[in-house]
Amino acid sequence: MSFTPLTPSHVPLRGGRRALLRMATYPADSAGLLDLERAIVKARQGIVKYPDELPDDPTTYGDLQIRAGMAATDGSAFCMVAEEEGRGIVAEASILRLTLRMVRHVAVLGIGVHPDAQGIGLGRALLEALLGWVRDHRDADGGRIRRVELHVRADNPRAVALYRSLGFQEEGSRRGLIRRDDGNFVDDIGMGLLLPDPDEPSASA
Ligand SMILES: CC(C)(COP(=O)(O)OP(=O)(O)OC[C@H]1O[C@@H](n2cnc3c(N)ncnc32)[C@H](O)[C@@H]1OP(=O)(O)O)[C@@H](O)C(=O)NCCC(=O)NCCS
């Protein structure tokens, strides 16, 4: 392992709730993460999948995640989950780096909060912890992540507001990318966050 594992921490949420934020591990978290994604996809908000486009079982789901690089512990993936006591995984957030050397400083962010746990501060808590973890990471050769990017549906104002509040900027739209359940098309917005190098205060990226 060449990255520092995330130190688990409890965070207070609105409504007197609280959650444990910790690193995700595969295959141990496969079942909880698949259940979470099923619930989010079923709610039909913010996502680009139909329920039948998800794997049927946790093993297949975990295998796909591992093949996508999500289980890497070499600093190419940073995956977190949030657990509520007695309930299991209620949210996840992940950052996966691009692999080619010229774009190795770029990472793609994804996040999902269970519909029953949305709007109580969990998304913000997860992303603050995830971005902090990533900002602190250094590769063995001193390299680090300098750009985090994501794609978000234009009809997902909560997500756009959250990303903006964390410093992400809109960088353009792919018009009509997504066909909604009602048959209408919606744009997909690209957003990016540059992480300045603390050792080079004058640099913008
Ligand atoms: C989008 C998502 C990640 C946000 O997480 P969350 O836990 O629900 O959001 P939080 O409670 O942390 O709120 C974060 C911010 O969203 C904004 N927000 C919350 N509800 C909002 C609403 N109904 N409309 C607009 N903005 C809203 C606020 O700016 C809030 O900031 P605050 O901390 O100052 O109140 C979560 O709702 C989710 O997973 N949705 C379904 C899947 C999805 O959309 N994933 C992202 C794909 S790009």
UniProtKB/TrEMBL annotation:
An annotated Gene Ontology molecular function: acyltransferase activity, transferring groups other than amino-acyl groups
CDD domains in the record: NAT_SF
Membrane-crossing residue ranges in chain numbering: none
Enzyme Commission code: 2.3.1.-
Domain N-acetyltransferase span(s) in chain numbering: 34-196
Keyword terms: Acyltransferase, Transferase
First-tier enzyme category under EC: transferase
Superkingdom of source: Bacteria
The protein's name: GNAT family N-acetyltransferase
